[in-house]
Amino acid sequence: MPNLSFQENLIQNIFMLEAVSRIAMSTLYGFAVLSFGYTLSLRAREKKHFEMFHNLARILFGFATIFTIIYGTLEFILPLNSITTQVYTVICLVLALAVIVIDRGKEGLPSFSFLMGALIFLMVTITPFVDPKPLYRATSVDWLVYFHIGTAALGEAIFVASFCASLLYLRDYQNLKKRKWDKNSSHTSLSTLEKLIERSSLIGLTFITCSLLSGLALIFIGTFAVQVGFIKILWAFLVWGWYVMTIFGRSFWGWRGRKGAKLAIFGMILLLLGLFGTIWQYF
């Protein structure tokens, strides 16, 4: 192995630090958004331990902001990406600081943090897919490929459960409205189906977020050049954004009952279209 000069060694170390910072940003922002989502869900159901998730979300968000500052500083020292990526990084930092300033105190404003956090996560994560420039390559990341596929499959399977529960909810609601309930039958109550739809959507979003994060990591540390189709990127983030919106709507705007069930069904349609688009590009 040839000896590297001090300058080459410094550049290589900055490459690695930028890659680590970028992955840390997306990971921490992603889990912060999920924690804010759980906070809203628990708060809407008046659960006592929602404050624990709120504090966890704040901590994760704070660390993500620190890594954003580190990444921005390194990018200023040694620009590795296009000017678009640098502008997005500055915007994300400004939004993150706004969240930290606004979401203070015991009550805070988790709904605002959830929306802004989702927007920041979207910008931080989607930028490398559009402008992929792998900075550091590991010797083997087979486990990461399996993790990416596995979490995506689990998330989609859980969304299917939410879809089925939504169909049952609409059917039982129509039966109740038309007074066609059989008193001797054991229909699942509407409230139970409502809880199943809400929780499965939140858990499914958790796995889909992990899948997006692992996909981002594959771009940076993959052993092979990553070729990502535009259709796959578009539908993946569209489905993720749709379920973020439905979870926020359930907790903040009261999108429950029939409206919540219809939103979950439409989310499943988006997911199927995304799968069709991903498969279609190989033919």
Automatic annotation (TrEMBL):
Highest taxon of source: Bacteria
Record has Metal-binding as a keyword: no
Domain annotation Cytochrome c assembly protein: ranges: 87-280
Keyword annotations from UniProtKB, A to Z: Membrane, Transmembrane, Transmembrane helix
Transmembrane spans: 20-40, 52-71, 83-102, 109-130, 145-170, 202-224, 230-249, 261-282
One GO cellular component term noted in the UniProt record for this chain: plasma membrane
GO molecular function, one term: heme binding
The UniProt record lists the keyword Nucleotide-binding: no
BP terms from Gene Ontology: cytochrome complex assembly
Matching Pfam families: Cytochrom_C_asm
Protein name: Cytochrome c assembly protein domain-containing protein
